[in-house]
Amino acid sequence: MKVIVCGAGQVGANIARYLASEGNDVTVIDLKPELVQRLSDTLDVQAMVGHASDPDVLEAAGAGESDMIIAVTQVDEVNMVACEVAHALFNVPTKIARIRNQSYLKPIWADLFSRDHLPIDVIISPEIEVARAIARRLRVPGAFDMIPLADGRVSVVGVYCTESCPVLNTPLRQLTSLFPDLALEVVAILRNDHTIVPHGDDQMLPGDEVYFVCDTRHLSRAMAAFGHEETEARRIIILGGGNIGLCLAEELEEKHRDVTVRIIEMDKTRAQHVARRLSGTMVLHGDALDCEILEEANVAATETVVAVTNDDEGNILSSLLAKRYGAKRAITLINKTTYSALVTPLGIDAVVSPRGITVSNILQHVRRGRVRAVHSLRDGFAEVIEAEALETSAVVNTPLREVKLPSGSIVGAIVRGDEVIVPRPNTIIRPKDRVIILAAIGQVKKVEKLFAVRLEFF
Q1: DSSP conformation class of 399
Q2: 156 near 149, Cβ under 8 Å?
Q3: What is the pTM of this model?
Q4: Statement to judge: residues 366 and 325 lie in one domain
Q5: Is residue 141 in some structural domain?
Q6: 62, 66, 344, 399: least surrounded by Cβ within 10 Å?
C-alpha cells in the first residue's frame, strides 16, 4: 500500500513508523527540514520538504499512485486542503485528516466534509478522542488504561499489580479454576520495560503492568480479582480548560450528572469562555500549582484530579501537588514518551498520551481485512485488534491449537452474538465471530491476513 503522510510531528512520525515497519511504501511531507532529515535517517520512508497542500509537492510525493493520504500537520486548514487537492487532482481513494478546531466539527456544519464539498473520508479530532479516553478511565478506577471493544461487550483493561493483588505468583492457567465463572484472559505483562505475551505457566509479580481482556459485565469482579476495588469518582477537578478539559467537562455534564466537576484555568479570558460553555461546572481562574487555588477547589475531598494543560511538566507537578493536598487519584496528560516510565513511581495513577490515542484512531482506518477496531498500547509495544471472522478467513472452523497464530500474538476473547467466550485450545472460531487479539508490533500484518478474505491478501 502506498501512503502519503502530511506532517512529520509526533503523530505523523509514529504513523510513518508503523506503516513502514509493515513494508508499506510511505512518503512523508513536512515544512521543517530537521524533522524530514530525522525521519530519513531513522525510518525506511521517503521524506521530503514541502507544503503538504501544494499540488506540485503532492505530485512529487506520488499522489497519483497513492492509496491513502493522512494529513496530520499542525494546521487544520492545511490538512483539509491537502485532502481536497488529493481528491480533486489525484483521485486518492482514502483521505484522513486531523481537525482540532471544534468549530469545524459542529453538527450544523456536518455537510462540510461531504464528497461534494471537502471530501474527507475520516476526521480525527484528538481533543474529543482524548476526552473520551479519560472519561473511560474515570469509569474504571484502578485502571491505567481501558478500551471498549465489540460495541462495549468486551473491555481491554490495564492494571498495576501491587503487593495486595490476590493472584500474584499464580500460574495464569489456574485463573480459570480460581474464577470459573469469570470471563477473563491476561494478554500482556509489562515487567521492567520488557513485554511478555504470556503462556499458562507465566505468573504476575509485584510491580507488573498487566493487560487483560474481559466480558464488560464482569469488569468490577475482574478488577477485584487484581486487588482493585476503588469506587468511581464523584468529585473531579480538571486542571486546564483547553479543548480537552472543556470536552471532558461537557461529556461529564451530559452523561454523569451525579459527578461534581471543577476546572482550574490560568488564562482569565479562556476561563470566562469555558464558564459560559458549561452549566453545572465551577470554573476557577488561577494557577493549578497554587496551593490556595487547589484548596479553594476543595482538593482534599476530591477523588480524582485530571491534568490536561499543554505543559507536560506542569501536568506532572500539579498532579503530584494535588495528591499531596489530598486528591486520591491523578490522571495526567503527557505528550513526551520519555516521561511515561518516570511518573508512575512518583505516584501518578494513569498517563494519557494524545499521540497514542490519535495513532490508534488512524490505524483503525489503515488496517486491511475485516478489522473493526485497532488500539495501540503503551508507546506502541503492541496493538489490540478487533477483527471479524468470515467464511473464507484462515482462522474459522479450526481449533485454536491448530491455528498458526504469529509469534507474539494471543487471542483474548471471542464474541459470538451477546456471548463472550474465553478462548481455550479447543475453542473454534465461527464465521461472523468478533475476535479480540493482541499482536506485537511486527506481527500485525500477519494477523490481518488471517482475517482477510482470500482475494484481499496483500
Answers
A1: B
A2: yes
A3: 0.84
A4: no
A5: no
A6: 399
